[in-house]
Amino acid sequence: MIRLTPRALAASTIAASALALGTVPAFAQGNAPDPRFETFTPTNAPIDHTIDYSIWDEAMKNLVISMGPSLRETAGAPPSSFGTRRQYGHVSRYRLEGSRIMFSFLDADIISSFTEYRQDLERTADLVDIQSLSRNEQLAYWINLHNVAMIEQIANAWPVRQPREIKIDGVPLDEARFITVEGIALSPRDIREKIVFANWRNPKVIYGFWRGEIGGPSIQREAFNADNVARLLDRGARDFVNSLRGTQKQGSTLEVSELFRDVAPYYFPNFEADLRAHLTEYADEETKALLTGTDRIETSVSEYDIADLAGGVREPTYQNIQSADGTQVSFRIPQSMTQLLQQREEKFQRIIREGRTGTVTFSNISLPGDPEDKDEVE
Questions:
Q1: Residue 167: in which H helix or E strand, if any?
Q2: Are the C-beta atoms of 9 and 114 separated by less than 8 Å?
Q3: Quick one: which H or E segment has residue 180?
Q4: What whole-number distance in Å separates Cα of residue 349 and Cα of residue 344?
Q5: Most exposed: 164, 286, 313, 324, by fewest CB within 10 Å?
Q6: Which residues pair with 253 in a beta bridge?
Q7: Per DSSP, what are the bridge partners of residue 334?
Q8: Which ranges of the chain would DSSP assign to H, the alpha helix?
Q9: Residue whose C-alpha is closest to residue 224's, from 148, 131, 320, 115
Q10: 264-288 residue pLDDT tens
């Protein structure tokens, strides 16, 4: 087995960051094949090569903070900053869901290492044909490349309230073709729609792609790889489907995220029936009650604010962080961020008090009669 290791995103620089704490319209031909991307169609005879993402895995563990499972409760309005009526930080009703990246703590060296790592992943495709790897290996590559590129560009543009405001040479971030694989220029949207959605039939792949917005699927605190991609996609699906930003009930209407409208041409052609079947697969008991208690669907749920800790702004008021013995350390936390982390802690304490335990996931376990490819994402 060959292990291809992309360079850089130095562990020392990443470790430094650890200090920081409507009714659906008729769809266009969004799933029509694009001949420019046919070269990325997976082969039928994969080679036994793997790509090592251990550097990115370490980065994710240091940069990503989970806000914990959704309690299906709207977060109340946070207090205004002291001495001003201006509201800093996150005000979103979904701010205690999903996960956050600590963009406000990243320095220029760490941000440049993101660019270097993204370029290394691009060059990896010059060492081996990505489309000749196993399907899970390919899927992990495309998800990691997409998410690295999104984090890189948002970090470059930060502070910014909404990632969709970012433009590269005048082109919106999601449409900008700043990624190059095998000589072909790609945008984040191209990776999702023209490569993955075009070649993978299972809709759970949609939960791997991070768009930088609170209203979207969470970014995981692990890098994807061939062994964990199915497990992480299932985790992302359960988190999103059973959250307020994924599904809500308003009278007899099931209100769902705009994400499902966007991917409908690829995965939910018979929209309501197909989506209900998909949601049921990942729904917990509370969400199943929403499904059975509604008779129509509207894709009306959205939240475009950045999925960071600071709300995409530099707040002028800070609190000094001290160690247990009262010794002041070298960084300060904005008051709004302190409040958000306190709310997060209160939420976790409530989960513990109410006995809402997490899930235990077993992976890579083969039972008698299991097919060799039972964990392959189709």
A1: strand 167-168
A2: yes
A3: strand 179-181
A4: 9
A5: 324
A6: 250, 296
A7: 318
A8: 11-16, 54-63, 108-127, 135-157, 188-189, 197-199, 229-241, 258-267, 271-282, 285-292, 335-353
A9: 148
A10: 999 999 999 999 999 999 999 999 9
